[in-house]
Design goal:
Oligomer: single chain
Protein name: Polyphosphate:AMP phosphotransferase
Largest sheet: 5 strands, parallel
Structural class: alpha/beta
GO molecular function: polyphosphate:AMP phosphotransferase activity
Pfam families: PPK2
Strand order of the largest sheet: 2-3-1-4-5
Domain Polyphosphate kinase-2-related: 9-233, 267-488
Number of domains: 2
Keywords: Transferase
Helix content: 40-55%
CATH architecture of the largest domain: 3-Layer(aba) Sandwich
């Protein structure tokens, strides 16, 4: 049996720890001034000392700038949402450090310990994790991943030492001994996961955990090093600026938009009779879906004054108010502005058996933020894939995703603007920004076309609604929503 490694002398450790603590506190001061957050993910075999390491970091750091996370098996409420929902909700705030004793890796490793066959699914889970971390890292989050390495022999010694002391024996469970017995199998899984999820911006760092003092110092020093590298990397990024001219990425999307026939007619009498028919079908379809524990997400985008609000009001009149939420999306708050743009939308993803209506949505990244230069070119170009992945996670969970673009002509929009100017109870709907957006309509049309071409997917297709005639548009929303939900439920 291999002998235990010689520990770092206490006096040497204390001198280094004092310097490290001062440097970590300085890091926290600087973190308040930079536009990113830090995630320190600690993983490793049982007995590697994640708990004691967390306690030491909590002692060294100012607790007002730290949040600690440890994930247990998902609750019923968490299972009622897409898998990554709980991880998005628990991200630390901007300028703060998140310490993860458990993370999105925990359940995959836990399942492998319970079930030998789970190894078959590790590659799929690792791909999901890799995409999630890429999303965060590309958005500016500093991810520091540490695997605390402990050999099987060292693990056995540590467990026996803890068990032999009455004061610490409670720390050793039957599950710990089970993990020790299947150490080689778990180590194989862990190696595979690390290999599949090691990428720029989210690298794995192996740190020997046998000597607790050396381990603690190594993790603290790694945090300092990665923080300094992140500051330099972000300082080199170009600043966001409005483009002088927009060029279509996929001209087919703009052609599709321009080909939409806007001269639809529908009399008030026909609308009245047809509306009741489709309200009834929508009510039955929604009740069936929600009763089957499916969730529904409706996304409404369109020109200013295109009638999104009116369409939403008619649609919700067919649904029990207790079953839905309408989420009006305005400019991001300062906290939201410095978080990943998808963060605020993940928080409002409905649980099973609920319906959420987004009045404007995550598509702001590829529309207003692209046109107005509120984000960098690499950010909005990357967003098409990020949005497709976000919606894929929703639909894989079972969520029915319906997306609407309400399209009005240039002339009809101007007529409605003028009407709002002269109608007292509508005047609040019009502001200087609406007129400014109208002057940039050509640029927005290009952005809309690219959005349609690059995010129209079978699992979450776009419905283009001719909206010059408000009655036709409202009925079209009712019809298409009813049919889409019926198709999803095979009614």
């Amino acid at each position: 049996m291999a002998k235990a490694k010689q520990r770092l002398p206490k006096r040497v450790y204390q001198a280094r720890a004092d310097r490290l603590r001062a440097d970590l506190l300085q890091l926290q001061l600087e973190l308040k001034q930079v536009p990113f957050k830090v995630l320190l993910i600690l993983a490793g075999p049982e007995g590697a000392g994640r708990g004691t390491l967390l306690n030491k970091l909590a002692e060294w750091l100012d607790p007002r700038g730290v949040e600690t996370f440890s994930y247990h098996p998902p609750t019923d409420n968490e299972r009622a949402h897409p898998q990554q929902w709980r991880f998005w909700r628990s991200l630390p705030g901007m300028g703060r450090i998140g310490l993860y004793a458990g993370s999105w890796y925990t359940e995959t490793l836990r399942e492998e310990a319970r079930n030998r066959r789970a190894l078959r699914h590790v590659a799929d889970e690792a791909e999901r994790i890799r995409d999630y971390e890429a999303l965060l890292a590309d958005g500016g989050t500093l991810i520091v991943k540490v695997w605390l390495h402990l050999s099987k022999e060292a693990q056995g010694r540590r467990l026996r030492t803890l068990r032999a002391d009455p004061a610490t024996a409670w720390r050793v469970t039957e599950e710990d001994w089970h993990h020790h017995r299947i150490y080689d199998r778990l180590d194989k899984t862990a190696r595979l996961i690390r290999e599949k999820t090691d990428r720029p911006g989210a690298r794995w760092h192996l740190i020997d955990a046998e000597d607790e003092r050396a381990r603690d110092l190594a993790v603290g020093q790694l945090l300092l090093k990665r923080f300094a590298e992140q500051k330099k990397r972000l300082a080199r990024l170009p600043r966001a600026k409005a483009p002088k001219k927009l060029t279509p990425l996929r001209p087919a999307g703009l052609r599709r938009l321009n080909a939409l026939p806007l001269d639809q007619e529908l009399s008030e009498k026909d609308y009245g009779s047809l509306r009741e028919k489709w309200l009834g079908r929508l009510n039955r379809a929604v009740r069936t879906a929600l009763g089957a524990d499916r969730s529904i997400v409706l996304v409404f985008e369109g020109w200013d004054a295109a009638g999104k609000g009116g369409a939403i009001r008619r649609l919700t009149s067919a649904i029990d108010p207790r079953d839905y939420s309408v989420i009006p999306v305005a400019k991001p708050t300062p906290e939201e502005k410095h978080a990943h743009y998808l963060w605020r939308f993940w928080r409002d993803v409905p649980r099973n058996g609920r319906l959420a209506i987004f009045d404007r949505s995550w598509y702001g990244r590829v529309l207003v933020e692209r046109v107005e230069g509120f984000c960098r070119k690499d950010e909005w170009r990357r967003a098409y894939g990020e949005i497709n992945d976000f919606e894929r996670q929703l639909t894989e969970h079972g969520t029915i995703v319906l997306k609407y673009w309400l399209h009005v002509s240039h002339e009809e929009q101007l007529r409605r603007f003028r009407e709002r100017e002269t109608t007292p109870h509508k005047r609040h709907k019009l502001n200087d920004e609406d007129w400014r957006n109208r002057r940039q309509r050509a640029a927005y049309e290009i952005a809309v076309g690219d959005m349609l071409a690059l995010t129209d997917r079978p699992n979450a297709p776009w419905q283009l609604v001719p909206a010059d005639n408000k009655r036709f548009a409202r009925l079209e929303v009712l019809r298409s929503a009813s049919r889409a939900i019926e198709a999803a439920m095979k009614l």
